[in-house]
Task: structure prediction
Amino acid sequence: MNHPENYKGKNVVVLGLAKSGVQVAKVLHQAGAHVTVNDQKEREQCPEASELEALGISVLCGGHPDDLINEEVALLVKNPGIPYKVAPIQKALELGIEVVTEVEVAYHLCKAPIIGITGSNGKTTTTTWVGMMLDAAGLSPIVAGNIGTPLSEAATAATEKDIMVVELSSFQLKGTTDFKPAISCLLNVSETHLDYHGGMEDYVASKAKLFRNQTEKDKAVLNWDDPVCRQLIPYIKAELIPFSMTETLQTGVYADPPYVANVEDEINRTVVYRDKEGKVHPIITVDQIAIPGRFNVDNALASCAIAIAAGASPDVLHGPLSAFRGVEHRLEYVLTRNETAYYNNSKATNAKATTMALTSFKKPIVLIAGGLDRGSDYMDLLPVFSERVKAVVLLGQTKDKLAEVAKLAGLKEIEVVDNEVDAADTLRKAVSIAASLAVPGDVVLLSPACASWDMYSSFEERGRIFKEAVHNL
Result:
C-alpha cells in the first residue's frame, strides 16, 4: 500500500500489544485508519487494552481469531518479536497483504532525517553515544527505537530540524519495505537469533535491509574489520564511511596505531578521523574513553564516524567519549566487595558478546553464564575460557553445553546450578557460589552468552536480580 496517504479509512491490524504496538496503533488511529489490535495473551494480561479501547480502537485478546485477516485488511503491523510462522502473518502473506514492523510506519510519518544503527552487538552503547555527540555539536538529536522510546512515538513528534538516532534490531528491519535512513551503520555481524531467522542468510539479509533503499546522497558507516560487513559493500549505493581498529584507512575513523588481532599490549592508541582531503584529526586517546574493553573502542570508532557523517566536528567528540559511563546491563560496574569487582553484562545474549566482555579484563574472572538454548554449541568460547576464566557458574537450559566447553578449556572449577522453584533464587544462588570462588583481585562477571527467556522475562530482569543479589551478599 501507499504510506501514509492510504491509511485514512483503511483497515489495519496491529499484531501484539507491548509498548511499540500500543504506540503504532495510536498513530495509525490518528491518521484515520480503522485499527484492530490483536494479542494472544488473555485480557487480564493486557493492561494497555482499556487505554486503546477508550480511543475507539478495537482490541482482541486471548488468541488469534480465524477472521482477523481477510481481503479487506490493507496492512498488518507486527510486533518485531512475533515469528512469521504464526497464522495471521501467514494468512496475510498468502493474501498479498503487506506485513511490516512499526519502523516502516514511523519512517513514512517522520519529517526528520534518520540515523539507523544496527549490529549483533554494541547497538545501544553506540546509539547512546551518537545522541550525546550530536547534542554536544549543537544539533537536535532524538534517540529512539529499540533503545526505549517507540520509533512511531518519536517520529510523529520530530521536526525537520531534528535528527532521529535509532537503534534497530534484525527483527525490526526484516519487516521493512521502503525504510531509508539518511545515515546507516552496521556495527558487526555474529551468529545470533537463528531460532527466529532460521539461519544466517535471513539474519544477514534482514540487517542488510538498512542499506537497500539508500542512494549515493546517503551515507553508510561500516565496520571495515568485520568480514560479513565487508561482503555487503558491493550492494551499498550510499557514500561509504568505514571505521577500523586494525587498519590505517585512507578515509574514515580508525585507531592509531592499529590493534593487532589477539595480541595484548600496553600501547596507548588514539582514535583519529582522516577526512577526504587526507587531513588527520585526533579525537581522543583510548585510555581516556570512560567505558572499558576493546569492543567499546570499536563502538567509539563507529559513534565518531556516525556523528561526523551527521555534521558534528571531530573537535566536539572528546567530551562524550570521556564522560559516558555506559548503559545499564552492558559491562555495568556494580560494586567491589572483599576486593572483588562485580560486573553486570546481562545484555550479552550471544557468545561473541561474552567473548568481548571477557577480553575487557586482565584480572582472573569468575563467570556466571547460561540461559535459553538456541542450538549453539558455544565452542567459540573455548579459547577465551582457557585464557581468561578461572571458574564458571552455569545455569539455565545451556548449562550442560557450557560446562562441556569449560571442561575442554581445562577449567577445574565448574559449578552447575540446578533450577530453583523461583528463577530469581537460581541466580541468587549462582551469585553466592561465584562469590565463594572469588579471591581478592578477581572479577565476578555476569555475561550469559544466552538470551534470558528460559527463566526471565528479559535480560533487564536478569541483570536487576544479579545486582540485587550482589548488593545482598
Summary: The first strand starts at residue 11 and ends at 15. Residues 219 and 309 are 7 Å apart (CA to CA).
